[in-house]
Design brief:
This protein is α+β, with helices and mostly antiparallel strands. β1 and β2 (42-45) form a beta hairpin. The longest helix has 19 residues, at 5-23. It contains one helix and three strands, in the order αβββ. A three-stranded antiparallel sheet has the order 2-1-3, with no helix packed on it. The protein has one helix spanning 5-23, and strands spanning 31-36, 42-45, 53-60.
Length: 69
């Protein structure tokens, strides 16, 4: 079934209207405290650091892992 040109523009207009609204709910990724399993050092990061690291705490709002969410 083919969409008419008008319905395509309506769909595109709806997407263009709703897409910016979804950005209003966007938030930065939380930070977590990670511990190195070999030497016990700790780092605050938003992403997993790999197999040698264990998540110890979080989530936090800041990059120093001091302000809990």
């Amino acid at each position: 079934m083919r969409l008419s040109l008008l319905s395509r523009y309506c769909a595109l207009g709806l997407i263009c209207f709703l897409l910016p609204l979804s950005a209003l709910h966007a938030a930065p990724a939380p930070y977590y405290l990670w511990m190195n399993l070999i030497d016990g050092s700790r780092i605050c990061s938003q992403l997993s650091l790999g197999q040698g690291w264990k998540k110890m705490g979080g989530p936090y709002k800041d990059s120093r892992c001091q302000k809990p969410v």
